[in-house]
Amino acid sequence: MLAIMALEDHGLTPGNGPVLVTGAAGGVGSVATAILANLGYDVAGVTGRPETGDYLKSLGATQIVARDEINETVKRPLEAETWAGCVDAVGGDMLARVLGQMKYGASVSAVGLAGGAGLPATVIPFLLRGVNLLGIDSVMQPYDNRVRAWARIAKDLPMDKLDAMIQPATLSDLPQLGRDILKGQVKGRVVVDVNA
User: Fold this and answer.
1) What is the Cα 102 distance to its own chain's centre?
2) Does pTM surpass 0.90?
3) 110-115 contact pairs (CB < 8 A, 24+)
4) Where are the beta strands (DSSP E) in 4-141?
5) Domains and CATH numbers, the chain
6) pLDDT, tens digit, for every residue of 108-143?
7) Distances from the Cα of 120 to the Cαs of 23, 67, 74, 101, in angstroms?
8) Angle value at C-alpha 116, between 114 and 119, nearest 5 degrees
9) Do residues 157 and 35 touch, judged by C-beta distance below 8 A?
10) Hey, which residues does 10 pair with through a beta bridge?
11) What is the DSSP letter of 11?
């Protein structure tokens, strides 16, 4: 929600064009996809697992972008202006590539680094297109912004889609889940029942 609020605070509206969500089948990406679609945005979800396409469409994605199409930097610092905004949960090479595909004045909310902490990008998208890179920090958020975010989640997250985003687990599942998470094989959010 903080990532979406930051994009809106920087001018994103549903009429601006498609919004990209990287790592769309993961925990952050699933929630972002559902909220954006619920708010009327045209959502493009990036995934490396074709089998999650139907899942992402059920959350409201209107377009599925294969990770292989967008997961490497290119030699050109700018590409066609495609995205009106982006919630990026991946970082790394994918974020660098996305920056060059943003529309003029558009923003990217960087909320994760599943693809690495490095950013092999140029300053060209910032200088020639006025692209904004918005860092999303959930740890030190001021109290008022936290309250605003929780209020927005209560209003804008379609609760009927929440069950599809949750994978229940027990403490004994954690070693295997850790391996699966590192391989990018977990869909949505994992909720661990510590009493089971």
Assistant:
1) 15
2) yes
3) 110/134, 110/135, 110/136, 111/2, 111/3, 111/28, 111/87, 111/136, 112/23, 112/28, 112/88, 114/23, 114/26, 114/89, 114/90, 114/184, 115/71, 115/90, 115/91
4) 19-22, 43-47, 63-66, 83-88, 102-110, 132-135
5) 2-135 (3.40.50.720)
6) 999 999 888 999 999 999 999 999 999 999 999 999
7) 19, 17, 10, 15
8) 130
9) yes
10) none
11) T
CA–CA dist 156, 160 (Å, integer) = 12
CB of 162 within 8 A of CB of 57? no
User: Measured between alpha carbons, how far is 23 from 33 in angstroms, rounded to an integer?
Assistant: 10
- The CA-to-CA distance between both ends of the chain, in Å, stands at 30
Mean pLDDT of 33-42: 98
What are the C-alpha distances in Å from 40 to residues 48, 103, 161? 25, 19, 15
Here the contacts of 62-68 (C-beta below 8 Å, separation 24 or greater) are: 62/18, 62/37, 63/18, 65/20, 67/94
DSSP 32-70: HHHHHHHTT--EEEEES-GGGHHHHHHHT-SEEEEHHHH
- Where on the phi/psi map is residue 168: left (φ > 0), alpha (ψ -120 to 50), or beta? beta
